[in-house]
Design brief:
alpha+beta; five-stranded mixed beta barrel
Amino acid sequence: MSSSAESPVTPMFPLGTALLPGEPLPLRIFEPRYRQMLADCLGRAEKSDAAGYFGVVLIARGHEVGGGDVRHQFGTFARIDNVLRQADGRAALTCTGAGRFRVTEWLPDDPYPRAITEPIPEPTIESADHPKILELRDRLGAFVAEVAETRPEAAPAGLPDFEVDEVVEHGLFAWTTRLPIGPADRQRLLECETVADQVAVLDDVVDGLTAMIRFGR
């Protein structure tokens, strides 16, 4: 990751969802504080000849606009891929989730949210994880097939496949982004330390989604 993402003081963008590694993130920037954050991120990137980064964390309580929110301590670096800026400073961004981090200290929101962060390595897929991953793949495939058969109107867009080679770069996050799961479960997955923990979370997710499909909840 670039030196921008490795800096201990990270510009932060709290959101109502948890960004996962490898996941695309479109954003519209309109609040003055985040216009300043974007300008600083792009300015830092120009000086280091690297992509701009900021941190994304899930809001535990409160709202995205206006501040005063309570934030989770684990999040994901967002790499700025494209920017379309207007004359008044508003902008449309396309970003991609990069590595995970842990917030070790929140700094004053002046002029925008900032924190001291510590990068977290991605869980390593060990040989003992392979059978669990294959079993999870089969469960995910069975879930999609059941949705397509019983409630086609609720089927995930495009009826996704879950191929093992897709987890090489971003692990099980690559499969998670295709599932209709809520922010709390996404956050649980983001905080997992091992692949076995991630599989356990996704097993719970599949159980819940399957129950919703079968019993209409």
